[in-house]
Amino acid sequence: MRKLFVEEMGRMTAEEFRAAEKMPLVVVLDNVRSLYNVGSVFRTADAYRVERIVLCGITATPPNAEIHKTALGAEFSVEWEHCADTAEAVEMLKGEGYHVYAVEQAEGSVMLGDFRTEEEERYAVVLGNEVKGVRQDVVDACEGCIELPQYGTKHSLNVSVTAGIVMWELSKGLLPRGLR
Fold this sequence. Notes:
Blueprint: H1 14-19, E1 23-30, H2 35-47, E2 50-56, H3 65-71, H4 74-77, E3 80-83, H5 86-95, E4 98-103, E5 110-111, E6 122-127, H6 136-141, E7 144-147, H7 159-174
Parallel strand pairs: 1-2, 1-6, 2-3, 4-6, 4-7, 5-7
Helix pairs in contact: 2-3, 2-7
């Protein structure tokens, strides 16, 4: 087995990416402190052709050298916007027709593997602060919570790791058929 060179992978340019069909998913970051986590979310959002990222509250925005270090330029391909308050962002997305879910451990949450998307529907997921998670008022504003099963001693995963797992799992049902 031979590793592929970057030139052999046929990757699109940032301009081609912006014009390409996207997965109908918006990733919302609720007061994420680490710029490296933000950059990682951008990079993964690029990999899965996420529609856009909404950066809320204290979450840093591009241009930023630390974001760029982990995004590797994905901050130029993935559409993003900043919203001062996450609850306002949730209401905005609901007004645009998105089904909005917090990724959080909560009463009545649905395990990620059991969560089902519907064709022709659009979704948004809210990922929380590295210490406090998704704010309770934001959880209250969402349609529900999606939870990742965990079997060890820790009660949480890194936010960028969680984002990657959620994007991967949701891509199975949301990516345009030609990309699956």
